[in-house]
Amino acid sequence: MDELNDQRQQRLKKLEALRGHGIQPYGTRFEVKDRAGQLLRLHGKKSKEALEQEQIHCTIAGRIVALRRFGKAAFALLQDGADRLQVYLKKDLLGEQGYRVCEELDLGDWIGVSGRLFRTKTDEFTVEVRTLTFLSKALRPLPEKWHGLTDVETRYRQRYVDLIANPAVHEIFATRSRIIAGIRAFLIEDGFLEVETPMMQPIPGGATARPFVTHHNALGVDLYLRVAPELYLKRLIVGGFPRVFEINRNFRNEGISTIHNPEFTMLEFYVAYADYTDLITLTEELFVRLAQEVLGGTTFEYQGQQIQLAPPWRRLPYLQAILEVNRLDPAVVKDRTAALAAAHRLGVAVEPGADLVTILTEIFAETVEPKLVQPTFITDYPTELSPLARRKDSDPSLTDRFELYIAGREIANAFSELNDPLDQRRRFEAQVAQRAAGDEEAHHLDEDFLRALEYGMPPTAGEGIGVDRVVMLFTNQASIRDVILFPQLRPEK
């Protein structure tokens, strides 16, 4: 800490020196005419002779991330976004005033330069600077070994430092932006209307999750940050919009892990007159298009595993998956005692008194999910696990639902929506009973949503896709924190 204070004091002295030279250390507008990445792409491979002949002039700006001084000249490396370009600072070209600025430069400072492109004696592509503008003084030094910053806590807590130290991080978030833009373009081209629904809701619904609670002073009521936009989007289907989607922020008051952040991004969309099988096709088409646009193809590597997205993807019923993966007797999915015995044999921990469905859920999570590496639609979930999904006509104990798994992780959840208001009320009431028994994640009873259903909702299919997990998949990141710019962390000590 003392070293940091000493360096900061030295930089404060340089800041005052700049002011003494009549130079504003926190400048105003600077007209950037070129970007480092653009110059590298257009001219970076040209020979020394070609650059001398063409006399290419440019004006760029960036942060100094390397600085070498010798005599009356210096080389600096400017970082512009994710790209870096060397600049040559020479007293003969800059003049006395210009070179005074160079003498006060530190790593981390921002400057703007104009000059011509050339190659040095060591053949490095460089800007020979003719004019230099000081833009911003950095009072804190870049962290030790900043060029290879690996401390996870620092990277997440000080993302601004992470972006300076690790240019590859820029590409992750540029890819995230392209993925979201690709999702939006795909759905709009397919006739969907993008909408916005409330983030503060009087009743949290649409997912089994514990909500965050806030209070509205003017209304004198508690409100909940949404856990999902589902019930509002379905109200819009009732209102007559046939295809709607929202790329939304959801908030769930639950644990933090490599795949969970309390605040996350979800795509939800709903299609009238469709069922969940229609969404299987749509999901395959969406992922194939995103992969082709972002990765250039449908085969890629994720955490050492080769993923193949070429459709059709495997479809496997939920109960069948439990039996097949673990080679269990069919009685296990029908009898609690048999299921409990199977869980013990498989080393799956279950709460005392857990019912059959809960035991099967734990077996599935522990033994089936990790093995679903290639894209797989797990279908036909028990009704108890799907309070908003339509029952199967062929077996009312199951629902018309699928979850998509890739690389051992749930990516999407979809179903044919329950549009029978009487059945929905009974399921809500069952959820209320679960809440009364201590299940804080069970659904609330939403009377306004039931009223909307009583006005009539056409047959509808809906789906939610975890955008953060899609970005993890397409950028080969193991942790959700690596694809969220500012993940939630414990307070800094």
The chain-level structural class is alpha+beta
Q: Approximately how much helix is present in the residues? A: 25-40%
Largest sheet: 8 strands, mixed
CATH architectural type of the largest domain: 2-Layer Sandwich
CATH superfamily of the largest domain: Bira Bifunctional Protein, Domain 2
- Reading off the top of the CATH hierarchy, the class of the largest domain is best stated as Alpha Beta
Overall pLDDT metric: 93
The CATH topology of the largest domain corresponds to BirA Bifunctional Protein, domain 2
Count of helical regions = 15
Number of domains: 2
Q: Determine the N-to-C terminus distance.
A: 15 Å
Structural description of this entry:
With 493 residues, the chain is of the alpha+beta class. The protein has 15 helices and 18 strands. The protein has an 8-stranded mixed beta sheet, with helices on both faces. Helix 13 packs antiparallel against helix 14. The longest helix has 23 residues. The two termini are 15 Å apart. 33% of the residues are buried.
Secondary structure topology:
Layout (H helix, E strand, L loop, with lengths): L1 H19 L15 H8 L4 H7 L2 E14 L2 E8 L2 E8 H13 L6 E10 L5 E12 L15 H6 L1 H7 L1 H23 L3 E2 L5 E2 L11 E4 L4 E5 L4 H10 L3 E9 L11 E10 L3 H20 L3 E4 L2 E4 L5 E4 H9 L9 H11 L9 H13 L7 E4 L21 E6 L2 E8 L4 H16 L10 H8 L5 E7 H9 L18
Parallel strand pairs: 3-5, 6-10, 14-15
Antiparallel strand pairs: 1-2, 1-4, 2-3, 4-5, 7-9, 8-9, 10-11, 11-18, 12-13, 15-16, 16-17, 17-18
Helix pairs in contact: 6-7, 7-9, 7-15, 10-12, 11-12, 13-14
